[in-house]
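Throughout our pipeline, every protein is held as a single compact record rather than as scattered files. The record that follows is passed on verbatim for readers who wish to inspect the format.
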Amino acid sequence: MKSWRRSLIVSLVFLCATATVLSGCGSKSDNNSKTAEGSNNNTTKVEDAKENKEGTGSEKFELGSSPLDFTFYGHYDWYTMPAWGADEASKWIQDQKKVNITAVNSGGNAAQKLNTMIASKELPDVIWTDRGTDVERLRAAGMLVSYDEYLDKYPNLKKWAGDSTLNMLRSSDGKLYQFPNWYTSQPAGNAGYLMNSKMYKELGSPKLETTDDLYNYLKAVKAKYPNVVPFEPDLAKDGQGLDILYSAFGEDHSPVYLRERVVPTGDKLTSIFQDSVYRESMQFASKLFREKLMAQDALTQTKDQVLEKAYTGRFAIAAGASPTEYGSKGDVELKKKDPTAGYEMIWPFHKEGLDKNKIWTGSYNQLGWNVALITKSAKDPEKIFAFLDWLTGEEGSRVIMWGPEGILWNGTDEEGYPKFTDTYINDVERRSKIMDATVNLQWNGNTVYIDKSKMKFEKTLPAEKQNWESRYQSSITWKTQYNATQFVNLNPMPDTEEGIIQQSVDEIFSESRAKALYAKNDEEVLSILDKAEKDAMAVGYDKLLAFKTEKWQDNLKKIGDK
């Protein structure tokens, strides 16, 4: 799930024509001597901070007026913070804003690292993590600083995120402890279908709209190109292409239902195993698999294998959470050998009779990806908040995304968006170097500002110079992403009864979907899903559904849908 989430979120970043920005997402690059693996020098005992106050008085802190030093911990096995000050953007922030950040890294075992820090009461000043379990654990232990008194004083977060998003982030005590990353008030995401355009033309450019069209097209591909994968489902073991196919069989049935293991029915959340849309989609997927119209290593292949097929043009149609990631690079690679080759995104498939404008291949939510927490270890929590608020504002967003002014951008227009330079347009190597370096320093991404900057600029370019991703984001992917804000924070704490049930249901879901894919016929698919329903109910699925329904109804009230 984490790899999927990283792909989804990085897709929101301003992508270069070469799409090299994406390569930094899962990086485990080494840090210099400023990076510490959680040594005591980089943490402050919570006990020593008892006298700290969450505010420093009524006077507003001006970033750059005095030095600000704090420690930062990214709570992910895969995350290693780049050395602060080693790239042009953070060096400028270090010099001009007097901010110095020392990394506390997980060492590849984030869960153990956090448990150790909590037990010893030695926490970093800032923790960057997923919403949910760990946030509530730290809050319940009294280890987090509330942001409420800072929101009006430092207005960027409140301005760009809005009250609706902030209210969804509030904890059970009514206070706000989470600073969101890549939050948004407009659609975002890259989930959908990617098509090999040369194969499509060679097969006569047939109509590709319905699931029947897709099935017939894949059969034609198999007959003409025996060494090509007709349908590539990406990392199907994580959902990916199978989730996308699900959306084709029901209006307003987003893949988020699969991830949450629920389906809304009236005012309740009900079983995914008995969902007619899910059952039909698995019958379709199983048929593709057994007729060898789908990659036969769908459940075992690695991302590198998917990329290799993309870069060599060895699939006809692909579906996944972010196929733009390899579609853009693959398009460039294929065109090097043949200018008529390449990839294009296509409008989502739908079952005959359904409204194509109510098919959602992916989802987004207002809260975005993860959150930054300021702990009570911090000596200057208000100053840290002021920095995070600046980072999510217009100036901070420009600097951390495109580097300091004077290289890739010079000044802003009347709406506050950057004016990109000739260097940005023509010097791909330098542009990529600057932007790649800060992907893992974008902790408080402002999706709306970044995306509007990107799209406004793209519209000024001739078609041949427009960014591949931006073209399809604006015309297809953003238009086909479902607002799933109502489904956030439904999961119970793992050490509760419902949390234990959740783990069992997740295992039953994953195992049954794999078995259904390998089923010999449609009847066996349904039999497998019926057994999964029975097994899930035996471990308490009905109690989990009731728990999630209550959480869902609370969400609806918070966002004003009830």
